[in-house]
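Reference record
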Amino acid sequence: MDPEVSFMLLCDPLQALGEHQIHVEISDRFNRQSFPEIEQHIEAVWSDRVAKEPWLFNGAKFRLHSAVLSVMEKGPVAEQAAQNLTRSQRGEGDQLESADKSSKDEQSCVLTLQLGLTCYKDYLGTNWSREAGRLQSHGQNECADPQAFLAQPLGVGAVMATADGDVVLLRRSQKVAEAAGLLDIPGGHPEPKVRYTENSCSELISSAQTRVNVPVSSLSKPVFMGIALNHTSAGRPSAEFYVRCTLTTEDVRDFYRHGGPEAHESTEILFLSRAKMFQLNERAPLWSEMCPSAKGAVLLYQRVMPDC
């Protein structure tokens, strides 16, 4: 597997979670831990970056503290699944299957995303900083959690399939701070200013819709495939979804060309057939053009949605 990515949580094949199975819990208990030295470092990093890239601006983000899987069936298999998830969310990189393989009942589990608040400035000064490794060691020693002092902003991505079966990819702008010029799937970071309901997958992936500029009414309900970790930014998490669009590939291209509220984030739209999506791997020429979050989404799609 590509060393840039791993899975924090991975659903079973054909067992992606529906919107009603994803809950969001927001509390300041899930915020980043702090100490004076790192706050000074964050301020210094931010001042330096803004001086070099004056178009950057700070913004509030959700911080993923953990993902808690509640399995309804009782028994040793369900208990083991919960234990595995606890280890995984602390950054040990375990793969976790979403439910008992012997059960096909989609009601068997509920995933709760425990979210605190962070910001883009904190992300650049922790996850994206040269001090990230030291912060992880400090977190492990002080909190038994290597991610405790990191911003860990929750990214979201959507593998979006058109009515023709093509998957949408976007070329990131050269002016974004991370993975400039690389290919990505539609997505971003959900904004805390949005009012989130108990079951809020649609709100979480709204950034994917705005990146492509397609009407919300053209998108199916999202299904959750898993959480990928980006190891080029100290294990930053991204929740990956699959969504179908009723528009044809050409219609999606036209909507994108008309621009939208976040058109400046990308410079080009591309489409890959389903067959080519399943051929993508580290040996494929296109793989080197993809940012880590897109790689994680592709790998999840290949494993979780083989017949979609």
